[in-house]
Amino acid sequence: MKIALNRGRLREFFCGAFLLWILLSLACSGTPKDREAPLDHLVVLHTNDTHGHPVKFFHHPAPDVGGLPARATLVAKIREKNRNVLLLDAGDLNTGRAESNYFQARPDIEGYNYMGYDAMVLGNHEFDHPMEVLEKQMSWARFPFLSANVKNKAGMPISRPYIIKSFHGFRVAVFGLTTKDTEVIGNPAHVKDLIFQDEIETARNLVPELRRKADVVVALVHMGIYASSERGSRRLASEVPGIDLIVDGHTHTKLDAPIIVPYRGGEHRTPIVQAWKWGLLLGKVDLWIREGRVVDFAFEPIPVNLKGATIKPDGSKAYRFIGEEIQEDGVLARLLQPYVDHVVSALSEVVGYAEGDFFVKDMRNEETALGDLVADSMFWYMKHLGVDFAIQNGGGIRTGLPAGPITKRSVHEMLPFDNTVVVLTLKGSDVRDLLNYLASITRGKGAFPQVSMGIQLTIDRGAGISWGVLIGGKPLDMNRRYRIATNSYLAAGGDGYRGFLSATERYDSSVFQRDVFIGYLQSLGGRIKPTVEGRITVSGEPKRLSWLKWAA
Questions:
Q1: DSSP H helical segments within 192-329, as ranges?
Q2: I need a surface site. Which of 174, 283, 400, 416 has the fewest CB within 10 A?
Q3: What is d(CA 189, CA 111) in angstroms, rounded to the nearest whole number?
Q4: pLDDT digits 0-9 by tens, 503-536
Q5: What is the pLDDT of residue 2?
Q6: What's the pLDDT score for residue 539?
C-alpha cells in the first residue's frame, strides 16, 4: 500500500513537471511575431579624396596633421573594439604631395595594404596617368579597385564591379561607381579609349542582383554631393532603390551628419556620407542589422590629428587638438620614411622667394595673383613662338605659395599634374567660341580660367558670353590666327575646353609646367609679389584689382 502511494505521487509529480515545462517553453518562445531576431553590428570606416597625402603635413593653421601612420593607429583601435569592420576609400588617391607624386602613389597604396583596406573605387584622378600606371597601381594593391561603369572599348570592365564580404551572421555587397564627368574632366589622352556608362543605369541593373547575394548593399562611389538632386550621389539615392549606404567622394564635402535622401518611388531612405579630403577625417558609420535588413545607423567624422591655433601673449602660436591626439603607427611610419627622405633630398632646393602670400582660395572663382603668375610662366616660355596669350585652369593649381622661400617641393605641390606646355593655333572665330565657353563655367569649377599678360576680357555669366576682349591691346579679329599657350590637359580638351580641339596647329614642348614655372621665377630674379593684374572681369561681381606689375 505504501509503495503504491509513492508511485502515484511520483506519477503526479512527473505529469505536473512536464506540463509546467510545456507552459514555460511556450511563454519563453512566444509567437513568431513577438520574437525578435538578434541584432548584428557593422562598422564602415571610410576616406575619400586623399590626393597623395601619405605622411603628416601642414594644413592651415597647424603642422603635422593627417598622415597614414596616424590613420593606421585609429583604424586598429576601432577594430579592437568591433568584430565586423569594413574599410573603404571613395577614390582620388592620386595627385597631391611630392611624397606620393614622385612614386605614382606607391607609398599611399603600401599604407592602405598595411591597414587592410577592403576596397577603393576609381576616382577621376586615377586617370591622371596612362592606363599602364593604373594597372601597375592595381598590381601593388592587396585590395580591389572597384568600378562597375568604366569599361574599355570592347565593353569589358577595367576593374572589378563589386565585392561580397562575409561577416558573422550577414553578408555585405560593395559596388563601385565612377563619375561620368570623367569623360570631360579626366585627362583626354588617358580616357579616350574608355567608356563611362551612366551611373544610375548601371546601378539599376546591378543592385537587384546584389540584393539577392547579400543582406547589406553599400555603394562606394566617386560622384559628389551637390545641392541639386539631379546630380551626383543624391540622384543615385533618389532613383535607385535597395542601397543601404552610399559612401561618396569627389566634392571634398565635410559632413557633420549624413545626408538622408528618400527614394522617389517608395519609403526607402538612403544615408550618404563623405569624409572631407586629404585624410584629415576618418568617417565612421555604424549599421545595425536585423534579419538581413538595416534597421538603424549612426555617423561620426573622426579628426586625424587636426589642430586649432591660438596666439599667446608673446605672439607665438599654441596648438590644440580637435578631438584626441592620435599616436602614429611606428611600423608604418618607418615603412614610409624612405619616400620622405628621397623627396627631402630632391626637392629641398630653394628656387625663389615670395614677398607675400599667394593664395589658392579664390582660384576657381576669380582672377588671382598666383593664377596670373602660372599663366605668365607659360607665356614667357613660349614667347619665342609668337604666342598671343596663355590660359590655365584654376583647378590645375592645387596649393598656394606662402610668403618666404619657394622650394622645388612647394612648386611640385602647387602644380602636381604631369602636364607639359603646349602651343595651339586657332582662328579668331574659334577663339571667340572658346572665350564664350568661359562664361558657362559655374562658380567653384576647376575649369575657371587664369590668363597671362596679352589678353583682357569680361566674362558675362548673365549673358553667357565674354566681351571687351583685347588681345595684344587690340580687339579680337575673327579673320586672324592666334597662338595660345596652355597645359597639355586643356590642349586635349580637358575641363570642357573643347575649343582647343579646333586648333589648326599644335606644338607640345614636352617640358613639364612646373619646370617652366621654376625657370620663370629665375628669370624674374627669383623674387615675386602677389599682385593681381586686372586681366579678367567677371560681370556682376565686385572688382578687386591692383594695377601693380610683378616685382623682379
A1: 199-213, 232-239
A2: 400
A3: 29
A4: 999 898 888 999 999 999 999 999 999 999 999 9
A5: 41
A6: 85
User: Cell numbers of 305, please?
Assistant: 590629428
Asked if 43 and 245 count as a contact pair (C-beta separation under 8 A), the reply is no
- The type of residue at 456 is Q
Comparing 185 with 55, the larger pLDDT belongs to: 55
Q: Give the closest residue to 183 by CA, choosing from 192, 173, 174.
A: 192
**Residue written as grid cell 619657394:** 406
What's the pLDDT at 60? 80
Per residue in 463-501, pLDDT tens? 999 999 999 999 999 999 999 999 999 999 999 999 999
Query: Which residue shows C-alpha cell 556608362?
Result: 197
pTM of the model: 0.81
**Pairing relation of β-strands 505-512 and 317-321?**
unpaired
Cell numbers 586598429 label which residue? 76
* Residue 107 one-letter amino acid: P
Distance CA 460, CA 406 (A): 36
In angstroms, the Cα distances linking 365 to 182, 360, 459, 506 are 21, 10, 11, 29
Q: Report the SS3 class of residue 457.
A: strand
| CA count, 13 A, side-chain hemisphere, 393 | 23
Q: Identify whether the C-beta of residue 292 lies closer than 8 Å to the C-beta of residue 170.
A: yes
Distance CA 58, CA 97 (A): 11
CA 495 – CA 235 distance, rounded (Å): 22
Sheet architecture: strand order including 119-121:
145-146, 119-121, 85-89, 40-47, 281-290, 293-303
Gap between the Cα atoms of 109 and 89, Å rounded: 11
For 165, the grid coordinates are: 564580404
- What is the Cα–Cα distance from 67 to 55, expressed in whole angstroms? 4
- For residue 277 the three cell numbers come to 579630403
Q: Report the candidate in 523, 488, 492, 491 with the shortest Cα–Cα distance to residue 381.
A: 523
CA–CA gap between residue 172 and residue 454 (Å, rounded): 58
**Residue 460's pLDDT band (boundaries 50, 70, 90)?**
very high
The pLDDT value given to residue 12: 56
How far is residue 146's CA from residue 142's CA, in Å, rounded to a whole number? 13
Q: Are 70 and 53 in contact (CB under 8 A)?
A: no
Nearest-angstrom CA–CA distance, 81 and 387: 62
